[in-house]
Backbone:
């Protein structure tokens, strides 16, 4: 594959990201040099995707620490506690952000005693989060590729690709693996209103990599699946409960219902860092309600009548019984998910 | 209710319609004085909705006949045969258009012998199509109201309201009836990409009538329904096969799957003129594939990368086993639909 622009990169003490709000019209690189800029980038979805948010949030801690020169180790740890909340809470549904922020702060604070060491440990651990994510993507791609060996037409929703991770993506990683293996492949990408991550981002990154991709309105996926033209579905995840219930971009559960009706597999691809073992089921997952303007307006153009109400939940929960398997970096998890997930978390913990 | 602008009207030898492509930003009335203008209005969806297309197509025959002054009865009937194809085939999926055009031409040609009588009979029959549609809407509203008496939050898709008929709508007719009865009511309207008939038209006409309406992205309906917040679904239809399989706006079948999963009723509301008894099942319904630009662009703004493919089927087929009941002007039809539909067609024929 050709040399692709990295969606997230650490360069000389700052973070560089592709501003995803401008894709596909413009490929613009933004430099993040303050915690406020990082939170703003998260908030307006210049960077998004649960695993990418983990790596980005971790690196943003370094930027946030550098920004306010601390004179003592104690002052630096107090600053990190501010950043833990400020950056860790920037979006509520993706667990990876909070997970990475906690991990990097806790590791750096507990393993060092001087200011210099703290900063070094913080950066090293943040880069490790990104590297581990890239490695997880690689392994998810390999495992997903095995599962999807005979699938030609594959449906996906939103964007769980290079633009959503620090590597080759989660749901899209097997597509890249299939393409590299020279297997026939056609990806159906639902456009993913309101913010069109499918039409804008998945279409852009797959096309950029030379993979055949067709964009459909969200509403057109179900009948396409029911017509028998789709071999499998694979989507990412923003948060997975201990029983396998999976929060992902709004609309995912409709695709899962169509997949079950058509009798095709419905795979979730996510690193184990996406699993929130503290949540017994999807009922406990907090669903972010985003601003109504995203529904009232499309790309800045008003489409609803003035004065009419809208609802704009950012995620939905797909119940575990609609999920064929969860593809993680430590293996392919199947029902009963309560057991396979607990086992995967043990193995993931052991490998770190 | 306040005095509402009629979406379709016969005024002094021409047709006046609301140009629905401009709603909700602008309420513009367009005059249709030629067959070409009529077909263009159908083609660009200035007028849409299966029952409205029936009434409009019927009236467009009069306009098309007047436009080319025929000197003899024979010349006029030949002109009508041209118009039968030209207007009747303007859109393939909605059966009402072809049905109304055939009915009006066949009645006028077979019941008259002079040019003047032919023209009079054509207009009278076309107006009768519109009046009968309004009466059918009224009855569908009454029957639907009975079924939805205890429902407060009701989901719908696309627009099957005043803007889609020559009356109070099909799926929306019970909403108007509930509102008039002073019953609590909250309508959830899916925005209906690609052309946003829900966000633009259903939201506009319900809000215009003072009914509480909330617009959701298509992808947000399933989880809302699964959360237990919706009491019932009601949608219109573009074509119903003899076994009850129903073609309606793309996305309808996804809503039907969610409704079944949530255990709430899923009603189809349509006049018997929407039933195509010649089709044994939904497999025989031709699905219109519309221009890809509707997916590539939203309200004129490009959202997909250049060179990427799109699919844009305008309708999908909801299998009859997902439909709780079909509400027609001659009664509420339930499974086995093969029987109830055949019976309804007999009764509809008898009442004409």
Residues:
């Amino acid at each position: 594959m050709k040399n692709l622009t990295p969606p997230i990169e650490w360069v000389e003490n700052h973070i560089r990201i592709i501003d995803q709000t401008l894709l596909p019209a413009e490929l613009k690189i933004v430099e993040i040099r303050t915690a406020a800029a990082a939170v703003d980038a998260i908030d307006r979805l210049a960077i998004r995707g649960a695993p990418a948010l983990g790596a980005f949030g971790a690196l943003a801690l370094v930027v946030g620490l550098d920004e306010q020169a601390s004179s003592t180790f104690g002052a630096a740890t107090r600053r990190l506690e501010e950043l833990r909340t400020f950056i860790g809470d920037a979006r509520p549904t993706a667990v990876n952000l909070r997970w990475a922020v906690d991990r990097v702060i806790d590791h750096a604070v507990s393993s060092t005693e001087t200011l210099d060491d703290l900063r070094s440990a913080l950066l090293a651990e943040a880069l490790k989060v990104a590297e581990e994510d890239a490695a997880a993507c690689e392994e998810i791609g390999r495992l997903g590729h095995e599962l999807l060996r005979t699938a030609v037409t594959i449906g996906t929703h939103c964007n769980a690709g290079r633009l959503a991770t620090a590597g080759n993506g989660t749901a899209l990683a097997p597509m890249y693996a299939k393409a590299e293996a020279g297997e026939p492949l056609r990806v159906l990408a639902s456009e993913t209103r309101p913010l069109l991550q499918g039409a804008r981002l998945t279409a852009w990154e797959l096309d950029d990599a030379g993979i055949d991709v067709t964009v459909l309105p969200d509403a057109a996926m179900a009948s396409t699946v029911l017509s028998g033209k789709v071999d499998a579905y694979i989507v990412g995840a923003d948060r997975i409960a201990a029983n396998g219930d999976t929060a992902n971009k709004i609309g995912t559960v409709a695709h899962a219902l169509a997949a079950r009706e058509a009798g095709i597999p419905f795979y979730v691809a996510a690193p184990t860092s996406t699993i929130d073992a503290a949540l017994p089921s999807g009922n406990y997952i907090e669903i972010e309600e985003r601003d109504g303007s995203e529904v009232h307006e499309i790309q800045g153009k008003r489409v609803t009548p003035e004065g009419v109400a809208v609802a704009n939940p950012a995620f939905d929960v797909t119940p575990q019984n609609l999920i064929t398997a969860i593809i993680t970096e430590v293996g392919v998890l199947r029902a009963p998910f309560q057991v396979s997930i607990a086992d995967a978390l043990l193995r993931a913990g052991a490998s770190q």
Observations:
- The first helix of chain B runs from residue 35 to 43.
- The longest strand of chain B covers residues 14-18.
- The CA atoms of residues 283 and 317 of chain B lie 8 Å apart.
- The mean pLDDT of chain B is 95.
